[in-house]
Each structure stands twice: as C-alpha cells, then as structure tokens.
Give the backbone structure.
Amino acid sequence: MFDQDNLRALSTLLLFLAFMGVCFNVYRRSRKSMYDEAAQLPFVDESKAKQESRDE
C-alpha cells in the first residue's frame, strides 16, 4: 500500500503544511504588538526593565 515514494510524498506534504502553519502564526497581525515590544528591548533602560519584570 505505502511504498517509499508515497511515504516521501506524504512527509513532504506534512512538512510543507507545518511550515505554512509556522509562517501564518509568525505573520499574524495580532503578533505585531509583541514583536514591536521585543524590537525595543535593546533600547530599554536596564533598571526600568528589572522593575517591569518584578511588576509582572
């Protein structure tokens, strides 16, 4: 029923679908605020960052 060629085709399809799922998850609009906040982390004052982490 399943020979090696069918298994390769099925695994390629499953990995492609997983890749598309990851891409969809990364580029969703609801994630934009999280990525914008992460992009500003190098510019945040260290003492302010420690205070914010204690508040959470």
Summary: The chain has one domain: 4-55. The two ends are 55 Å apart (CA to CA). The CA atoms of residues 45 and 51 lie 10 Å apart. The chain has a mean pLDDT of 87.
